[in-house]
């Protein structure tokens, strides 16, 4: 089988296993079954561990990956690790027994919180909070899983100051939303892995408006920080399936708390105004 780069990408390994399955030996089928059940093993197991899992020899493991078009097991594993680092759900996490999941998740969340909050620079935080308090308008943007974090932050800031809203309204194009920004505005862009392919281009375009940019991302972000005024990196990777966003959420809550303090009397007055209107409209229990 030709070893073209696109064909050997680990994202296609499940399809390649299915295509080759009928011609595999019994031992190779056991390897295939193990990988199809838990693809993340490829990123973390050695050839010996994978062989032990399937009950075959190392030679069978090597032969299996050559059948799939790889030069070696190591080539397949390195490709899988690249996708694991990028956050592909096919290559993150493992099949931990339910009895161990609660303690593992708890420890993961603690690690994520510590890994994120201990990296924050207090001076940078003060600059960001001052920008939130004084910007003419604050616009937020987030894609995929970052979208709900952007919504959360929008809701928190909108309680303590005016002119806070999403950068893109439903049905708007990026050009329409970005064109509303000016030099007195603050754009808060949340881009945790896995970002859309045009993410860097969008951040660059926002920078071109003269607006200041707060970029909240993870440690895999590249290029976009060059266009941002401030970048906060949040830890998201854990040993389980699905990234953890507790660190990013803690950063946003911290910024919300500090922004209210920075807004002082004006923030308190606006919050009271919002609460009084809620009461008149009887919107909340």
Question: What are the defining features of this structure?
Answer:
2 domains, disordered N terminus, 285 residues, Rossmann fold, single chain, alpha/beta, Arc Repressor Mutant, subunit A, 54% helix, 12 helices
Structure description:
- The protein is an alpha/beta fold and 285 residues long.
- The chain has 2 domains: 10-86, Arc Repressor Mutant, subunit A (Orthogonal Bundle); 106-281, Glucose-6-phosphate isomerase like protein, domain 1 (Rossmann fold, 3-Layer(aba) Sandwich).
- 54% of the residues lie in helices and 8% in strands.
- The chain is built from 12 helices and 5 strands.
- It has helices at residues 13-20, 26-37, 41-44, 47-54, 58-67, 73-86, 98-117, 122-134, 145-157, 174-179, 199-207, 246-281; strands at residues 138-142, 164-166, 186-191, 212-217, 230-233.
- A 5-stranded parallel beta sheet has the order 2-1-3-4-5, with helices on both faces.
- The termini are far apart.
Instruction: Count helical runs.
Output: 12
Strand arrangement, major sheet: 2-1-3-4-5
**CATH evolutionary superfamily of the largest domain:** Glucose-6-phosphate isomerase like protein, domain 1
Mean pLDDT: 88
> How many strand elements?
5
Specify Rg, calculated over alpha carbons: 24 Å
Low-confidence stretches: 1-11
Structural class assignment: alpha/beta
CATH architecture label name of the largest domain: 3-Layer(aba) Sandwich
How many distinct domains? 2
* Separation of the first and last Cα atoms: 65 Å
Largest sheet: 5 strands, parallel
List the helices and strands in order.
HHHHHHHHEHEHEHEEH
The level-1 CATH class of the largest domain: Alpha Beta
* Share of residues in helices: 40-55%
Shape category: elongated
């Amino acid at each position: 089988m030709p070893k073209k780069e696109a064909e050997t990408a680990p994202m296609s390994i499940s399809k390649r296993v299915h295509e080759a399955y009928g011609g595999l030996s019994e031992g190779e089928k056991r390897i295939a079954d193990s990988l199809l059940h838990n693809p993340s093993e490829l990123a973390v197991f050695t050839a010996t561990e994978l062989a032990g899992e399937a009950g075959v020899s190392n030679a069978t493991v090597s032969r299996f990956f050559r059948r799939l078009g790889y030069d070696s097991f190591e080539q397949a594993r390195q490709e899988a690790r690249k996708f694991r680092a990028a956050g592909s759900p096919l290559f993150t996490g493992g099949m931990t027994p339910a009895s161990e999941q609660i303690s593992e998740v708890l420890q993961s969340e603690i690690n994520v919180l510590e890994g994120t909050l201990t990296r924050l620079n207090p001076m940078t935080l003060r600059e960001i909070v001052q920008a939130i308090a004084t910007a003419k308008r604050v616009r937020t943007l987030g894609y995929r899983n970052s979208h709900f974090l952007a919504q959360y932050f929008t809701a928190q800031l909108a309680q303590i100051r005016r002119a806070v809203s999403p950068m893109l309204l439903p049905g708007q194009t990026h050009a329409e939303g970005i064109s509303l920004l000016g030099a007195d505005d603050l754009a808060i862009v949340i881009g945790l892995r896995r970002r859309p392919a045009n993410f860097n281009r969008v951040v660059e375009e926002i920078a071109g408006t003269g607006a200041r940019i707060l970029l909240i991302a993870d440690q895999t972000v590249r290029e976009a920080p060059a266009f941002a005024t401030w970048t906060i990196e949040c830890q998201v990777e854990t040993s389980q399936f699905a990234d953890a966003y507790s660190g990013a959420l803690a950063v946003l809550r911290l910024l919300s708390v500090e922004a209210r303090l920075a807004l002082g009397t004006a923030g308190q007055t606006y919050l009271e105004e919002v609460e009084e209107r809620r009461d008149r409209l009887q919107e909340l229990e």
